[in-house]
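Backbone-to-sequence.
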């Protein structure tokens, strides 16, 4: 039985690796065509961007590769009557396939480590490389300790959150410095609305001025227009904070309840989805196994089995998307829909696996 298990395991691993390689090369080629204009900025820069975007989709390509790999390898075994020989030899088919599921569980753990220890540091490193000061002393907006920060010339601004649909910043603070980097004034506002370009209209403002002659003075202003050096499009294009934060830091932010309720719900969804998403490898393989083994009973072809398995995967990902939306709404605890969908489909997969005919 060990020899048979090792054989099927090698077949599954090699088929999955080939599918992963094919999908990766295809995706990189398509991405290169879509962003061919980036080649004008230099091949090295363009290659780094393409490779980075490739790393972003690994969490999707790996489960699909494992799904296609298990259907491909087992359908081949069915076609050459290897599954029939296993059954005729009195070997329990589920026992032979158990190492495949163990390998999928290990791949899930490696995928979790990859995203937390490789993808996030790489993402931050690329942002650091591209966010250095330009000739005007400007930087890209950064999300640090629960707030957005941005430096432009002699001013620095901070905001609690940016609402892309309303093009509005909430809880805004602007620090303005003189030529010697001494603080001249601080502007606090409840909100700031992006008018045109980099011009923002501040509302409900309190201004603190610092001078050597008069010391600290304070005044209130109803409306004030300020050029922050960046537009709402720049903020909308910035990476979401959750994608830049490791699991450890996400857990710390959640414990400290960083940000408002909407931001906190986003952090909770990001934390639980990052833990649960890698299990999608095991879920999809469990869902695909019966379709591949079922060839011996129905006489289906490899394309039919693969299409049925992909349909099951589509149902899982649709439910997963709805779970993320439910968690981000704040109406239910984020862990409930995320883990509910994961456990539900794992249960369905285990139930279908146990129904495989011996």
């Amino acid at each position: 039985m060990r020899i048979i298990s090792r054989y099927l395991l090698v077949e599954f691993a090699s088929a999955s690796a080939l599918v992963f390689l094919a999908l990766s090369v295809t995706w990189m080629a398509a991405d290169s065509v879509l962003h061919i204009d980036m080649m004008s900025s230099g091949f090295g820069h363009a290659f780094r961007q393409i490779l980075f975007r490739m790393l972003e989709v690994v969490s999707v390509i790996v489960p699909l590769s494992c799904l296609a790999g298990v259907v491909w390898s087992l359908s081949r075994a069915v076609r050459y009557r290897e599954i029939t020989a296993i059954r005729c030899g009195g070997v329990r088919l589920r026992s032979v396939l158990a190492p495949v599921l163990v390998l999928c569980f290990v791949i899930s753990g490696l995928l979790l480590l990859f995203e937390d220890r490789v993808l996030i540091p790489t993402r931050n490193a690329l942002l650091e490389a591209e966010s250095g000061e330009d000739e005007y002393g400007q930087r890209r907006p950064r999300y640090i300790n629960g707030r957005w920060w941005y430096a432009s010339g002699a001013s620095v601004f901070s905001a609690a959150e940016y609402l892309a649909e309303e093009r509005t910043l909430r809880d805004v603070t602007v620090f303005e410095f003189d030529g010697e980097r001494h603080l001249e004034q601080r502007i606090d506002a409840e909100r700031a609305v992006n008018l045109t370009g980099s011009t923002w209209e501040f509302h409900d403002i309190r201004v603190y001025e610092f001078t050597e002659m008069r010391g600290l003075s304070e005044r209130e202003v109803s409306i004030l227009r300020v050029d922050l050096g960046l537009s709402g499009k720049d903020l909308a294009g910035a990476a979401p904070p959750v994608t830049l934060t490791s699991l450890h830091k996400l857990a710390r932010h959640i414990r400290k309840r960083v940000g408002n309720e909407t931001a906190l719900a986003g952090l909770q969804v990001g934390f639980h989805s990052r833990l649960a998403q890698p299990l999608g490898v095991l879920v999809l393989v469990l869902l695909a196994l019966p379709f591949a083994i079922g060839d011996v009973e129905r006489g289906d072809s490899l394309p039919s089995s693969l299409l049925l398995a992909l349909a099951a995967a589509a149902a899982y990902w649709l439910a997963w998307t709805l779970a993320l939306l439910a968690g981000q709404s704040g109406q239910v605890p984020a862990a409930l829909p995320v883990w509910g969908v994961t456990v539900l489909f794992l249960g369905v997969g285990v139930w279908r696996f146990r129904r495989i005919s011996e």
